[in-house]
From TrEMBL, chains A, B, C, D:
Residues 132-333 form the Gfo/Idh/MocA-like oxidoreductase C-terminal domain. The keyword Metal-binding does not apply. It comes from Caldimonas mangrovi. Coiled coil: none annotated. One of its GO terms (molecular function) is inositol 2-dehydrogenase (NAD+) activity. PANTHER family: BINDING ROSSMANN FOLD OXIDOREDUCTASE, PUTATIVE (AFU_ORTHOLOGUE AFUA_2G10240)-RELATED (PTHR42840:SF3), NAD(P)-BINDING ROSSMANN-FOLD SUPERFAMILY PROTEIN-RELATED (PTHR42840). The keyword Oxidoreductase applies. It holds the Pfam family GFO_IDH_MocA_C. NCBIfam families: myo_inos_iolG. Its EC number is 1.1.1.18. This is Inositol 2-dehydrogenase. Residues 3-120 form the Gfo/Idh/MocA-like oxidoreductase N-terminal domain. Belongs to the Gfo/Idh/MocA family.
Amino acid sequence: MKRVALFGAGRIGRIHATNLAALPGVQLALISDPMVDAARQLAAPLGAQVAPSLDAVFADASIDAVVIASPTTTHSDLIGRAAAARKAIFCEKPVDLSVERAQACARAVAGAGVACMIGFQRRFDPTFNEARQRLDRGDIGEPEMLVITSRDPGAPPVDYIRQSGGIFRDMLIHDFDVFRWILTGDGNDEAAWLSATGSCLTDPAIGEAGDIDSTAVTIRTRSGRLCQINTSRRAAYGYDQRFEVLGSKGLLACGNHRPSEVTQATAAGTRVDNPEHFFLQRYREAYRLEVVHFFEQLQNGRPFRTTVQDGVAAQVLADAAAESLRTGQPVTLQ
Amino acid sequence: MKRVALFGAGRIGRIHATNLAALPGVQLALISDPMVDAARQLAAPLGAQVAPSLDAVFADASIDAVVIASPTTTHSDLIGRAAAARKAIFCEKPVDLSVERAQACARAVAGAGVACMIGFQRRFDPTFNEARQRLDRGDIGEPEMLVITSRDPGAPPVDYIRQSGGIFRDMLIHDFDVFRWILTGDGNDEAAWLSATGSCLTDPAIGEAGDIDSTAVTIRTRSGRLCQINTSRRAAYGYDQRFEVLGSKGLLACGNHRPSEVTQATAAGTRVDNPEHFFLQRYREAYRLEVVHFFEQLQNGRPFRTTVQDGVAAQVLADAAAESLRTGQPVTLQ
Amino acid sequence: MKRVALFGAGRIGRIHATNLAALPGVQLALISDPMVDAARQLAAPLGAQVAPSLDAVFADASIDAVVIASPTTTHSDLIGRAAAARKAIFCEKPVDLSVERAQACARAVAGAGVACMIGFQRRFDPTFNEARQRLDRGDIGEPEMLVITSRDPGAPPVDYIRQSGGIFRDMLIHDFDVFRWILTGDGNDEAAWLSATGSCLTDPAIGEAGDIDSTAVTIRTRSGRLCQINTSRRAAYGYDQRFEVLGSKGLLACGNHRPSEVTQATAAGTRVDNPEHFFLQRYREAYRLEVVHFFEQLQNGRPFRTTVQDGVAAQVLADAAAESLRTGQPVTLQ
Amino acid sequence: MKRVALFGAGRIGRIHATNLAALPGVQLALISDPMVDAARQLAAPLGAQVAPSLDAVFADASIDAVVIASPTTTHSDLIGRAAAARKAIFCEKPVDLSVERAQACARAVAGAGVACMIGFQRRFDPTFNEARQRLDRGDIGEPEMLVITSRDPGAPPVDYIRQSGGIFRDMLIHDFDVFRWILTGDGNDEAAWLSATGSCLTDPAIGEAGDIDSTAVTIRTRSGRLCQINTSRRAAYGYDQRFEVLGSKGLLACGNHRPSEVTQATAAGTRVDNPEHFFLQRYREAYRLEVVHFFEQLQNGRPFRTTVQDGVAAQVLADAAAESLRTGQPVTLQ
């Protein structure tokens, strides 16, 4: 039985708490959040305790692993302390908005020799993961081109955007990880050239906050594979999460998930459901499967699908995109 | 906190056990099965006890409700005893292969004034239920015609078929309930005329066992609404579960659920996943939602979506279909 | 160069005229219609002449073939006279509303030894014909079950319905031919049992005219294959023309044709075009291909895909359906 | 009656010849091709004459219009001579591989005051054109982002590639025109910034010929609208021609056209037809509609949907893409 402490009782923390509580062989022992009431409300029905303090968590020798679902700004500190305390670590993306601090986390984890997984849940989505497995099986031959469409139903509050690190670090971080997973995931290739541009088209307030809401990114790998990512903070029809990979022998296209399979035909047209509107619903199964994976690999001492190095690498691409947008020039990556 | 006893630790019993164990406000207290080892293996990880005997279950005043997932032949007896013991009842379909015994169950339940729900899980499937809600909203006007396609991936063992009561009672019982739910669900209409035919096309052994494997049933209601049901014990491409309802203002078509939304295009063609192959997977969410519904309605003293009367009514249609097949003539229903 | 005379300058006559005029090796020489102005307007731009009289057409030795697109009531007489005059015959469905007269036509054609093709255009639809070819190739093994959905966008005027011969002869005649083509097309099987029911649901005036507008027909073949046909005079979403055939190794499903492949996603939902609304548009290519086939087979002295015997056989099924509806009993066919 | 001369009896010339011959009010009078036999074979069945010489065509006062379907290298000369001879001009894309010569053609046409249309057939494709009309109607609000997927089933012979002007001028010229039509078609916007990259992934021989086979292009307009174009010379599953435009109120996605609407489900999966494999088949209707448009607008003295200026503008974008690929830097357009 693995005893686990959870940091963060917010939106994403609650998701992890429910999934952890339902895992056989895992006990959600402690929940820590500065907002003690939130922690208490979450802990009670799940039979967990509220952690008296951060120190108490790291001092508790009976805690085997920590799940970090607190604000991004706290990640690197908690990873460092968990590594020092020899706890296995599951940390929500991103590792940190700063590549330097993210790299420091990677060093701390490596130094302490603790297991650390980053929560890029898309790699655990049944549809995306099925595509990756077919790619590995060679069903479409050698991958050549990846087109990622990634659109939110609507923009977050401008206050959030102001401290988000910008659209590349906040939103495209997932897409950069998908690019690496699909086009360079075989370990034989790497991003070599990146060009990013974008605009503020959905809400001037986003521009006034110094960010953009619509982006177009292109990445070329050392072997010449190509990736195009198009993103928007607003898709009136819902949460649009698709990618297509062209291979030497065919195409794999990942479509959206819909709430139901009802088709309705009237004089107004033939319509199907829009995509799942909310990311916690769209990736509900992925959030469950990633913690299952975390404890399975922990149990068997096997590597995670998404390591802290993956977290660093995605951050490097986000920085490159931000620089390309700023300078109007492509960035060469080594 | 409702304390629940489960009868049956088989395939379907295990599904219910897992769902019950995860329900807030519900405690899976006892599991009863003649195969004590199966009951023990199921109970242990879920923190439930193995019931020493049937009598012990019904004698236990702390048990509020029973979930009956044991073989069909045991349903009517268990319903009767549970009613006598004043336990709320959730019973898997069918109530009983005999309409008379099913009606006796209905009387027993009514007499004892206990709540009784029959597990027609299709009414809780997200896709089918969404269609019903749109129908209620009037999205396609007045329902006129229903076409049900219901095909299993493959036939069960002939030994099972021999004691199944025949394809109409064993397999179409669900489709008869869907017909009632969709075409007469508003309570303003009823089946008036039924014609059934069929053949043995997939396996001669099924014919030798006195059954058929392919059927075509037509039902006309008092108001003239029409329903056609086509079923087969074998669909090489998986578990095919669809229906389409034509209304005065349009069509609602319920499609199959697929394991993933990956589309793969190669020189061999453009293909999507086949339907979920296994009924426990296809209706996984429906099985969860029906027990949620059971305890919610129980809590609020509201009626169930699927009553014991619904169970009887579906059985009556199954008998009519069997008679129509035997005589080669339509059956008039009052 | 084959010289052709066309009977009928109405809606369907105009379609055939345009297709004939564009056929290499075919000269549309004469057009005959009691409404001489209609004939003249159609003939002029196509470089055809208006036939002075029916007699003149049959007396003209330079005419090799006739295309009969005049009202149903004139078909049998024109077939008889064309046979007597040794002209090759293309006649629109149906041969005649009376099976007896249709059989007389078959005898006349056989006696004269002239080629005669009936215009069941659905057998030439690219989608339906592709399905038939895959069936012949054995792509889904042995055919077992056929489900035909056949719905018009709206009912014709009641005056038309009054003299239409009823929905089975007027509308389902096509579906009966599709049944024969798909389930018994290999010549190894035949319809053995038919049960039909129906209602008047879309417009009481249709009922007052002695007809119905919604039907459900079931046919079982000698070998036990099953067919269900559901039809309605009204589909608010357009002209719904689909069939699905289940085989021992899989399913072939023929979907509707749409005007465009645009998918539009907005807050209101994700929608595609409704089916082609008008039968002349839906079957535009089929109408072209059937006359191409007529002259190709004529040229090579090969049999037609749809003979006058097929026309008679479809009429027999239509009569059986009408009788089954009248008596409320199934009909056994020899 | 407009009398027309056709230059070119090759693959595309034959398409135009057939469409011209079927147009009411149009007479295909002359066909000119250095390969006189090809011209003769094409002319004979269509009742056209073979032009004795180019001079004879331009000297023939009875010729109202010319259709230029000869090799690209001949376009500018023929446009110039047709303009001088005061013939209306329909010219296949591209105007010329050199922007300078294309601009000279535009000047010649303007100077002579003759009507000149360039054959960008995609603007006449029923699906693409339907999307444009919905955009004009405001069905998805303001256009923000365009993603074009444009892939050939296979690469042309390397000899062809060597003199093609490169993939941007030869293949993407259509996509650059689609970009202008969809994102700047309202005349209120223009391309401001373009970045192109690419690789040789499908066949080293293409690289040795100095070209690439896989490209990723991004264009930003003055108002900040974004366009991404991904192309490949090889798609194992057929001719992939799609685009998606995101607007402030929704999405318009143009899918591929398929030969039939048959869905086949077997143990191997559920598959639909691959896209039309050959461009002449995919755009068959578009080729017909563009010449219909040419003569309609000519008749009514209204402007063409695709002018010689559109041809020049697409060429400018192709040059910019070639330069961006060469320098590895984005290109700013005025």
